[in-house]
Amino acid sequence: MADLIDGKVISKQIKDELKEKVAALKKEGIEICLAVIQVGNDTASTVYVGNKKKACEYVGINSVSYELPEETTEEELISLIDRLNSDSAINGILVQLPLPKHIDEDTVIKRISPDKDVDGFHPESVGRLSIGQRGFVSCTPAGIIELLKRSDIEIEGKECVVIGRSNIVGKPMAMLLLRENATVTVCHSRTKNLKEICKRADILVVAIGKPKMIDASYVKEGAAVIDVGIHRNENNKLCGDVDFDSVSKVAGKITPVPGGVGPMTIAMLMNNCVEAAIMNE
Q1: Can 52 be counted among the known catalytic residues?
Q2: Mean pLDDT across the chain
Q3: How far is CA 96 from CA 90, 174, 261, in A?
Q4: What is the pLDDT of residues 77-102, one digit of tens each?
Q5: Active-site residue, selected from the candidate residues 96, 116, 171, 241
Q6: Is 237 a catalytic residue?
Q7: 96 is catalytic
Q8: Which residues pair with 253 in a beta bridge?
Q9: Which of 15, 21, 38, 52 is catalytic?
Q10: Which domains does the chain have, with CATH numbers?
Q11: Which residues of 51-71 are buried (b: 16+ CB within 10 A; e: fewer)?
């Protein structure tokens, strides 16, 4: 039976370390402030925003929130971002996705200053990552690297397979694993022989967006399996992209859903906020 990689425990370790850092920065007169913008009242977004505010409070970061009505125009949102970009008291700006249909997400992401882009979605942040420069890294992939390292899973020289090529998880995940000197294969919906490729992986990261798609037949004996997916099954219980019951019998280590990757995303957002304050001092 696989060992559990406990994201709740590891994210708390990270937040406790950040709490100390933030307290030390405050003594130097450096306050950290995150601006969170939500447009409309999507239920899941409201929960995520609430969790981010709680994490800020725990770590000692100030947060200001802008809860804008659904009918807010793109121009009004851009104007708010411009104002926050030029406000020296704000270190990080986060626009909660998804946005209402009439607002172009790409335009909004590009408008956030790369120096305040704590989500790591701006093209400049992605460019810095791809050429190995310092910058903000998308929080979920950054959290997965921490999960692996803090669970004593060797990355260097290992064969890693990432299923999924999204801009938020799959692509940055592959680049971060490369940065750690892994050999990386990225698979997606057009990949042939998916099962055979997955079975080579020492570390398998699954971000495919299909509930319980990956079962034991995809997994090498003793592999580390990271499940990024989150869905509700027919009984309204949370599950991931990995069939946990089946895979946990062959994997060496595995993340649960919930309580695996999810808590790490918020911990790394807090880390990016602290980095923003240090970088812009």
Answers
A1: yes
A2: 96
A3: 17, 24, 18
A4: 999 999 999 999 999 999 999 999 99
A5: 96
A6: no
A7: yes
A8: 3, 224
A9: 52
A10: 29-114 (3.40.50.10860), 139-262 (3.40.50.720)
A11: ebbebbebbbbbbebbebeee
